[in-house]
Amino acid sequence: MHKRYEVVVVGAGPAGCSTALFLARHAPSLVPDLLVVEKARHPRPKPCGGGITIIGERVLRHLGIRWPMDDVPAVWIRRMRLRYDTQEFTWDVPGVFRVVERPLFDAALVRHVRAAGIEVWEEAPVTRLERRDGWWVLRTPRGEIEARIVVGADGSNGIVRRAVVPQGKARRVSRIVEVWTPATDATGREVHRGKTALFDFSVIRSGVQGYVWDFPMIRDGELWVNRGVFDSRVWPGRPRANLRTEAERMMSARGLRLEDYGLVGHPERWYHPRGVYSAAGAVLVGDAAGADPLLGEGISMALWYGETVAPWIVEALERGDLSFADYGRRLAASDLGKHLTLRLRLAQFAYARGDRFIRFWWRWLGRFLAWYAGRVRQQMAEEGLGKE
Ligand SMILES: Cc1cc2nc3c(=O)[nH]c(=O)nc-3n(C[C@H](O)[C@H](O)[C@H](O)COP(=O)(O)OP(=O)(O)OC[C@H]3O[C@@H](n4cnc5c(N)ncnc54)[C@H](O)[C@@H]3O)c2cc1C
After folding, report:
1. Structurally, how many domains does the chain consist of?
2. Would the CB of 287 count as within 6 Å of ligand 1?
3. What is the mean pLDDT of residues 40-64?
């Protein structure tokens, strides 16, 4: 007889932790029947810039998690510079996002999950997943377990997604690569103005459907600079830009050589309102479902997924209808789904054509951003968000 759980969450990243925490909040009686299984042991390495916007901060706050969050080092971004060629806009919204030391952030989330009384297995990869007599049977190194509901929070290439969407389209996937460089040069001079993030969209001219970035980050408690290239591929039929070449160019423009540092990357799935995100007894959240194709913002979206879908899972258990037949539709109609759809449309628009198109719109973007920055500042002040 296998051990049985009502809900098993596969993956203890931001999406899995958020889903587990909100499940416990909505249905405390579910906690003994809730399990989170994680392939790695936290803190685990993770290629990621670690930027969390006020969207994520809001969700954390709903969970009672505030900054400073446990022992998680973070840099507070006050100023964003958005560049296309020689035209640049500066967007001053102190606290609009902060950059966390990602492995420690995820490890802190897992501690919160355990503190809520939820069982977490680490170093327990799910290696097989199949449907038997109305239950999901999951194989792990600790033996087989059965789940009435499986939540796939196992990232872009996860096993749950492959079980839920066997013929899933691999084409809705962005490419992201990053490199970490010291914040000071050999003479100790600062090479990066702290608390400023730069997003440079000039690479659209070379066929990248995205931007290059640099912003400060914390690594092992020290200030570093995180630089990278995001290619959304919202137009998957177009030729693929060479991201290594773009990264080399970006580094040499800053007097650095890519070969002196390691370039790491990972695909990131993006959300589409008509995507398939569920099967009988199974739902996908976070990168396993799809994040933001405009900027590649995935952490805050992953947290938001948990908050959005946990009540639906509880409702399904209460009603005894575990088909999740309307999951995709509900997702599309939710605030999260609408927000991601808006970002998808903006990405399709922004990355649609080349130089002349973007040059034309860039002027209008400046005006829009000035207005939008004011709105965000006001919202943050009203909600008390973005405080150091
Ligand atoms: C280079 C790069 C930079 C990025 N920078 C940013 C940024 O600055 N800001 C931002 O918001 N987003 C960023 N992202 C995106 C962000 O990292 C992801 O969107 C985010 O991690 C998604 O969270 P998640 O919980 O869905 O998945 P993940 O964080 O990938 O977590 C999935 C978890 O599932 C576990 N798992 C996988 N398979 C199994 C299995 N079979 N059994 C058990 N467990 C399993 C994994 O070990 C992992 O812990 C970046 C991504 C990349 C590649």
Report:
1. 1
2. yes
3. 94
* Residue 267, ligand 1, Cβ within 6 A: no
Q: Which residues contact 329 (CB under 8 A, 6 or more apart)?
A: none
pLDDT tens digit string along 222-237?
Answer: 889 999 999 999 999 9
Is residue 155 within 6 Å of ligand 1 at its C-beta? yes
SS3 52: strand
Here the CATH number for the domain that contains residue 19 is 3.50.50.60
359 CA from centroid of ligand 1 (Å): 33
Give the distance (Å) from ligand 1 centre to CA of residue 335. Answer: 22
Does residue 252 lie within any of the structural domains? no
**Ligand 1 and 11: CB distance under 6 A:** yes
- Nearest to residue 174, comparing CAs of 208, 204, 214, 225? 208
Model pLDDT, residue 356: 79
Q: Is the pTM of this model over 0.85?
A: yes
Give the Å distance between the CA of 149 and the centre of ligand 1: 21
- Per the structure, the complete domain to which residue 128 belongs is given by 3-75+97-170+272-350
Alpha helices in 205-354 (DSSP H): 243-252, 299-319, 327-333, 335-350
